[in-house]
Input
Amino acid sequence: MKYIIALLICLPLTAQAYFRLDPAPPHTEKVEFKKLFTDMPDTTWHFLKRSFARDSIPGWALILTTSWATYYYDADIYEGTQRTGRRWGLSNFDKTRTVWKVGQYDILRLPSDTNSALYFLGDGWLHLGTAAAMLGTGYFGDHVRPYNTGLQLFHGMTISTVVSQIIKRSTGREVPSDRTEPRGKWRPFPSPKAYDANTAKYDAIPSGHIMTATLVFTIIRGNYPEHNWWLFPTEIIYLSALGFSMVNNGVHWVSDYPLGIAIGYMIGKSSLRMGRQKDFENEQKEARNWNLVPSFSSEGVPTINAVKAF
Output
């Protein structure tokens, strides 16, 4: 069972190869801080446009196929994962403990056992801390790459949170721990009051934890391609551990993951353009310009050919 679960969690990552996005030009100077906010419309539009472009069809086909296949076996996978967790000595419940509370709201919860430590891999504080560390390192050390990476992380997390909330509130799927049907009942478009009063009844898909973790890895890998040889395997292990823990404690179904991974990856790639749209535009303009290419005629006479890309 544990090997099947790991495979089902990792499979959607292979869809990344089918989403054709422009490569990010290398950083040359720090991005203006204001672009963290002013570039949000452009990044959102680029995400939507590229997500539904014709050359993204193979990626979405794999995502949809994986989602359907895992949805069909969701109940069995959930029950099998919890049995595996108990066999490994892991709790089947989230045992993170509140250490900071403001009024009735829990601000910071920290893990208290192994399973909650795995669940904490997807916690917002960990992702925000990563972004803040990158931004601070770049700002105080006057380093371009970590500074821009930190800005892009905050930028992408803001956009992905909005997208995730729209989908969650539109689909209204029950999480495993609160299910009233074997694979969770769907209650599309709950009222804001109903959603806030009992969020677990409506917010299963997509997994925000998986989505944000994917986004963070995508942006870091995009800015540090020379480290991709170990960052990408680490991402697979990281998402697998996080994904297992969330099914084990009844927070998510496995079929909640493929869409979360896709959204995190696509918004992450789009966020890499933040503050550098002109670089992409210049590259596209250069591709459309005439170019002079030296050549030889059939008689061996040197010639100059004018070539224009369309």
Remarks:
- The chain has one domain: 2-275.
- Confidence is low (pLDDT under 50) at residues 283-297, 299-308.
